Amino acid sequence: MERTRTSSAVSSGIPPAASVATDATHFANKPRTLTTVLAGGTAGLCVDLAVYPLDTIKTRLQNFSHSIRHSGQLRLFAGLPVVLCGSAPSAALFFYTYETVKAKSKEHGHPVWLTLGLCAGISEMVACIIRVPYETIKQRAQSQPHVGVRTVLSETIRVDGWAVLYRGYLSTILRGLPFSLIQYPVWEMLKRSLREYNCRVSPSSESSGELSKKQFALCGALAGATAGACTTPFDVAKTRIMLAQVCLCL
C-alpha cells in the first residue's frame, strides 16, 4: 500500500503572496491527512482480521504454559472483539505519525536511512500507547479460549490492577522497534529497486516508474517476512511477559 504523503508547514518570514499560497496548499492537503488515517486504520484492521487465526496459534505456541490440548478446543477467533476495537485506531495513529515525521524529516534534509529510522521508531512508540493494552487482553483471551473477553478484562484488572495493561509496553517496544526499523526501510528499498527495474524494462512508457499492485504486495510481503524472521525471539519474550501469571481456570 502506497502511503499518502502529508504536507509540511512552511517557516515564517516568507512573502505575503507565498504565505497565501502556502495556506491554500495547507488547507487543500488537509483531506490527505484524513485519507492517511482512514487508509492506515482500515489496512491495519483488515490485516489483523485476515491473519487472526494464525496469530492465535502463534500466541499459544509461544505461551509455554498453554496448548490447544489443555483447553480442549480451538476457538481461533478468541479475543477478536478486542482487535475490532483497538486495531484500527492503533494502525491509524501509526501511519499518521509515520507520514508526519517523514514529511518533517525531509523538510530538514535528513539522510534517507535516518528519515526512515525516525519514522519507524517514533511511530512505533506512539502507536504502542493504544496497541499494548488491547494486545495484552487479546493475547490473554487467545490463551484462554474457554473464557470470554469481558471476563478476561475484568479479572486481569481485579487481580493485577490497571497497570498490568502496560506491563508489556517496554517488551513491545523492544520487539516493535527492530521490526519497524527493518520492515519500513526494506519496504522503501524494494519499492525503489522495482521502480528502477520498471524504468529499465520500459523506458519509453509514461508509467514505467509506477509499481503494479502485485509489486506492492511483493514488497510488503518480503519486508514483513524479513522483519518477522529477525524479531521472532523478541516476540516470544513479549508474549510471555504479557501472559505472565495468567490464570487458566477463570
UniProtKB/TrEMBL annotation:
Solcar repeats lie at residues 31-104, 111-193. GO terms for cellular component: membrane. It is found in: Membrane. It is a multi-pass membrane protein. Keywords: Membrane, Repeat, Transmembrane, Transmembrane helix, Transport. This is Mitochondrial carrier protein. The chain crosses the membrane at residues 76-98, 110-130. GO terms for biological process: transmembrane transport. InterPro entries: MCP, MCP_dom_sf, MCP_transmembrane. Belongs to the mitochondrial carrier (TC 2.A.29) family. It comes from Dibothriocephalus latus (Fish tapeworm). Coiled coil: none annotated. Signal peptide: none annotated. Pfam families: Mito_carr. Its main location: membrane.
